[in-house]
Amino acid sequence: MFVELREVSKRFGSFEAARKVGFSLAKGTLAALLGPSGSGKTTILRMIAGLEAPDAGDILVDGQSVLGLAPTRRGIGFVFQNYALFRYMTVFENIAFGLRAQKRPKAEVRDRVAELLALIGLEELGGRFPAQLSGGQKQRVAFARALAPRPRILLLDEPFAAIDAKVRRELRSWLRRMIGHLGITSLFVTHDQSEAIEVADRIIVTNGGRVEQAGEPIELYRSPATPFVARFIGESTVLSGYGGLRGFEGAPEGASCAIRPEFVRLFAPGEPVQFENSVQEGLVEGLAFRGDALEVTVTVGGFSLATGYSLERPPLSPGQAVKVLIYRLYAFDGDRAVLVGNRLLANGGGGYNFQI
Amino acid sequence: MGAGTRGASGGAWRPNPVARTVLIVLSLAFAFLMLVMPLLVVVSQAFGAGWEAFWRAVSDSFTVKAAKLTAITTVTAVAANTAFGLAAAWALTRYRYRGQGLLTTVIDLPFAISPIIAGLIFILTYGRLGWAYPFLEAHGLKIVFAVPGLVMATVFVTIPFVARELIPVLAARGTDEEQAAVLMGAGFLRTFALVTLPHVKWALVYSVILCAARAMGEFGAVSVVSGHLRGKTNTLPLHIEILYNEHHYREAFAVSAILVIASVLVLAARSVVETVSRREVR
Questions:
Q1: Among positive and negative, which fits the CA dihedral B110, B116, B122, B124?
Q2: Does A162 reach chain B within 8 Å, measured CB to CB?
Q3: What is the pLDDT of residues B92-143, one digit of tens each?
């Protein structure tokens, strides 16, 4: 593994920012540290960079501990949340800064900066000052500046937070393409699950200073290991005491679970009902248009569940009786989440089979 | 419906015309009586007997010596406090440690302490009765009633100027850019010179100007440690006092005019700096 954290802990006063954090990244991976604010993800990033020192544990890059290395010598490219471009220097000077700090020959500096300006598509703007750039342009410059000295690892702190929603989507795919093209091992921090899922090859979910789960985006979605991941990744409704749901009667008293919208299937009056003996009666509580489908809230077994409903199917209205089938759910067992299928279905709720 | 109609009906807020006139007249009259007129008197008295008399007073050898001494103390004090101010502002905004609050308070001390006490502190420390005197005596050093004492008293009085101006600017800028520089391999000096200094450039120039103005005119603390040795330890303000006490009014006013003109130049420099720095907001 190229980057490896071993039981890294850090506390600020009484606040535990990192508790025995451990994960590893293969060379060339683009990974996301995903978690709510205060979950310790930025602290982890800053410890890898050397801007904070861990209280315990070890951080290895390419098999060697970097804790004894000053930030200057770790070979880290860092993109700050607000970019931290040097505002009294031009774009050219910003990108050249790291190379000049390493006392590279003038010609090399000039060529490398020109190469990076071309890479980020801002060849014409080398003479501008940061204040004369748009948010997206600033981000590209920050990216180029971090890459200029050819770092071993690229770290990005909330790289899209300061950009408006429209440009953000564009930049996400741009950054993904760029990093893929360069093949540099990268780790970015985000609190936005859709951003992590879209951009990263690998996601490390943090919560309360701990790593909840690490894996490929689809793996986290399909088999969340903890109740937190089940709730945090993807949409889901969390219920407590779900034994009243048909097919899940054996549930322990008061146990909680999470149900994703696609786990719930509605049959409108008049529609042929599959798995006749596995369904139960429900009432349509509300309908909301979600652009390409309806989101239906349905009351079943005393709970409110949300699910998608195609516009092509028979119309529904609030107060209408429908049949509801729940294929499966994530049952919470202490700090674990377990996929449980509807036991009345022939194949026990079926695997969760979708492929990409 | 025009704005005037609404004003007449009492809908829009309008300054009370009477209050407005009274306030303007009062503040102008006050500024004239207290600030402008006395300064004009100084200048007119200084030149009252013509250029020649003015020149004679100003080119008097004791005056020239006093002016040189003032220049020396001012330059030294400004240099010392610029170095200290930068270091203190950096130390207070870039690191966290115990005693930070104490340093902040200590920097402000000279603002709160009367200059005469500032002077006495040096007499009591380095003077004939001071604890450091035997050591100084043994090494042939003179501080009190000598130039080093004047410089030290001036430094003391002007300590807060640079640090106080830089601390809020540095604090507001944050440390991201400096961290970015360090991660790219820049050392402390490069980071300081290329990243930090440009941020505080104008605040620094501005505070140096104010510090110089204050150092030039310092009277109280300097008066205590000077010993009033004519041609040796008299700065311009002290020289003016002596001339005045000896009833050489015309000469006193002429020398005062030098300080007044210097102050006006400093104020002009200050407003130029303010304008330029405001224009350069990138």
A1: negative
A2: no
A3: 988 888 888 888 888 989 989 898 898 998 898 888 888 888 888 888 888 8
**Alpha carbons B102 and A220: distance in angstroms, whole number:** 52
Cβ of residue A143 closer than 8 Å to a chain B Cβ: no
Contact between A116 and A42 under an 8 Å Cβ cutoff? The reply is no
User: Is A122 contained in some domain?
Assistant: yes
CB contact under 8 A, A80 and B195: no
Residue in chain B lying closest to A84 (CA): B177
Q: Calculate ∠ Cα A71-A73-A78, nearest 5°.
A: 50
- Name the domain boundary from A202, A226, A250: A226
Structure tokens belonging to residue A58: 């070890």
Q: Give yes or no for a contact between A41 and A35, defined as CB atoms under 8 angstroms apart.
A: yes
CA distance A142 to A77: 10
Cβ of residue A85 closer than 8 Å to a chain B Cβ: yes
ipTM: 0.80
Residues B34 and B166 in one domain: no
Chain A hits for B187, Cβ within 8 Å:
72, 101
Q: Tokens for A230?
A: 């089940």
pLDDT digits (tens, 9 = 90+) for A128-160: 999 999 988 999 999 999 999 999 999 999 988
Read off the tokens for B59: 């080119």
Distance in Å, alpha carbon of A74 to nearest chain B alpha carbon: 8
Q: Does A88 touch chain B (CB under 8 A)?
A: yes
Show the domain range for B58: 50-279
Please enumerate in sequence order all residues whose Cβ is within 8 A of that of A271, keeping only pairs 6 or more positions apart, or say none: A313, A314
Q: How far apart are CA B202 and CA A215, in angstroms?
A: 51
B282 with A51: Cβ contact below 8 A = no
Q: What is the pLDDT of residues B29-39, one digit of tens each?
A: 999 999 899 88
Q: Is residue B3 part of a domain?
A: no
Range(s) of the domain holding residue A51: 3-226
- A86 to chain B, any CB pair closer than 8 A? The answer is yes
A352 touches chain B (CB under 8 A): no
Query: Which residue among A73, A82, A149 sits closest to B176, beta carbon to beta carbon?
Result: A82
3-state secondary structure of B139: coil
- Is residue B185 in a domain? yes
Q: How many CA atoms lie within 13 A of A121 on its CB side?
A: 8
Q: Which residues on chain A are in Cβ contact (under 8 Å) with B197? A: none
